[in-house]
Amino acid sequence: MLQTVLGIAVIVLAGTGGEIAVSHAMKQVGEVTSFRPAALARTIVRAARIGWMWIGVALMALAFFALLAVLSWSPVSFAVPATALSYAVGAVGARFLLGEQVSGARWLGVTLVCLGVALVWMG
Question: How is residue 36 annotated by DSSP?
Fold first, then answer.
């Protein structure tokens, strides 16, 4: 059980950390306004030059491989709902690392998700 808990922690922290890092990188790249192939290629090249993008990709890869491990140890009906804690970590990271405003309704939603994970954990 301890390895599953640690695996879930790696999934949640690495996955959400990766998403926050990629978000930070894309804010430096700028808004994607054109989906023409040449414009997309320029955006990809700009994104590939930002270190935060590579940190994010590496963290998300770590989370993916941790998920594979956890799925080999525990039932999917437990593992996948438990990873929903990433919504809470994401909201906290968005607020305190990216400086985003998180509304009361979103905090309420995060609280409900956490309660749902607690129910899955107990059952």
Answer: S
Considering the entire predicted model, what is its pTM?
0.85
Pick from 88, 100, 106: nearest CA to 27: 100
Query: What is the spatial distance between Cα 16 and Cα 35, in angstroms, rounded to a whole number?
Result: 26
Query: Total domain count for the chain?
Result: 1
pLDDT in tens, 43-67: 999 999 999 999 999 999 999 999 9
Domain, as residue range, for 106 = 2-122
- Residues with Cβ within 8 Å of 7's Cβ and at least 6 positions away in sequence, in order, are 66, 67, 69, 70, 73
Terminal Cα distance for the chain, rounded:
14
Cα-flanking dihedrals φ and ψ of residue 35, to 5°? -110, 20
